[in-house]
């Protein structure tokens, strides 16, 4: 089958061989280059402020609830994390952000197929995937346009592009500048989950997060004691990249951080 070309910005709802609801989409219909340059002009559409964004088109079963996404999967790829977490937290809205058009379309079609085939009569139902969605977005830009301040409880960076060469490090999704935005949209107590199979990137992400005054490293064991085990298991093994690393016998480095509050010092008396 020839590759489908898509020029529009956001995923299309038009039926296509790959998004017939009763069929799960096949990745082979959605191939595109492995990398997208985050500094290119992707002609992305974004709201002027979070208040202007209509989440009901993403989560129709939650329309009128006033809810906005609480989990954001940055660079969600083919959506494995979202699909795994959706039934575990049926009342939590989750959003994947993905820069590649065809990959976003795949996740969109995958969610549409799952919604259509799992318990459509009893919605929202724990397994009806009403609480997950995806947008095509460059997560290095405009995040505060989508998410209100302190609205997220979890931010995921799973196997992000490593951008190995030093001159490409500016394209890494964790940087001092971007951490300020992540801290803004995360609620105090919220968590950042990072995982990679690239040791240099693991060190980079950890060093940047540790250097930031609003993030504090949390041991995996502590999070498991807090009941975050199912999330951590999904972080390790639910995504396409995570599975690939496993197949290849690669190592995975996990590092999690809590968004803390800055306590203002009392003025000197
Ligand atoms: C190596 S893949 C990992 C995908 C997924 N997290 C996984 O574990 O399978 C990195 C993904 O991040 C996406 N990405 C890279 N830069 C991005 C950006 N600035 N905004 C949104 N997505 C981005 C890429 O298109 C790619 O799908």
From TrEMBL:
Family: Belongs to the class I-like SAM-binding methyltransferase superfamily. TrmB family.
Sequence ranges of Polar residues compositional bias: 9-19
Subcellular location: Nucleus
Function: Catalyzes the formation of N(7)-methylguanine at position 46 (m7G46) in tRNA.
UniProt catalytic activity: guanosine(46) in tRNA + S-adenosyl-L-methionine = N(7)-methylguanosine(46) in tRNA + S-adenosyl-L-homocysteine
Organism field: Rhizopogon vesiculosus
PROSITE patterns on file: SAM_MT_TRMB (PS51625)
Keyword annotations: Methyltransferase, Nucleus, RNA-binding, S-adenosyl-L-methionine, Transferase, tRNA processing, tRNA-binding
Protein name (database record): tRNA (guanine-N(7)-)-methyltransferase
Gene3D superfamilies: Vaccinia Virus protein VP39
Region (Disordered): 1-24
GO molecular function, one term: tRNA (guanine(46)-N7)-methyltransferase activity
Subunit architecture: Forms a complex with TRM82.
EC number: 2.1.1.33
Gene Ontology, cellular component aspect: nucleus; tRNA methyltransferase complex
């Amino acid at each position: 089958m020839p590759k489908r070309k898509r020029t529009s910005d956001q995923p299309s709802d038009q039926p296509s061989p790959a998004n017939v609801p009763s069929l799960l989409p096949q990745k082979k219909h959605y191939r595109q280059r492995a990398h997208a340059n985050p500094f290119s002009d992707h002609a992305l559409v974004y709201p002027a402020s979070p208040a202007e964004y209509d989440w009901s088109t993403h989560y129709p079963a939650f329309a009128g609830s006033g809810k906005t996404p609480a989990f954001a999967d940055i660079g969600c790829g083919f959506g494995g994390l979202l699909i795994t977490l959706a039934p575990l937290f049926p009342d939590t809205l989750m959003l994947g952000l993905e820069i590649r058009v065809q990959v976003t379309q795949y996740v969109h079609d995958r969610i549409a197929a799952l919604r259509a085939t799992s318990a459509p009569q009893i919605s929202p139902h724990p397994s009806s995937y009403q609480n997950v969605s995806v947008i095509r977005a460059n997560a290095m830009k405009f995040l505060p346009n989508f998410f209100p301040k302190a609205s997220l409880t979890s931010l995921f960076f799973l196997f992000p592009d490593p951008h190995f060469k030093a001159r490409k490090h500016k394209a890494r999704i964790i940087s001092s500048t971007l951490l300020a935005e992540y801290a803004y949209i995360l609620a105090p107590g919220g968590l950042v989950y990072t995982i990679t199979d690239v040791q240099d990137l693991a060190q980079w992400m950890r060093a940047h997060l540790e250097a930031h005054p609003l993030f504090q490293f949390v041991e995996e064991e502590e999070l498991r004691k807090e009941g975050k085990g199912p999330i951590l298991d999904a972080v390790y093994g639910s995504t396409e990249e995570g599975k690939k690393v496993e197949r290849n016998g690669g190592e995975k480095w996990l590092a999690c951080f809590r968004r803390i509050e800055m306590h203002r010092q009392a003025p000197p008396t």
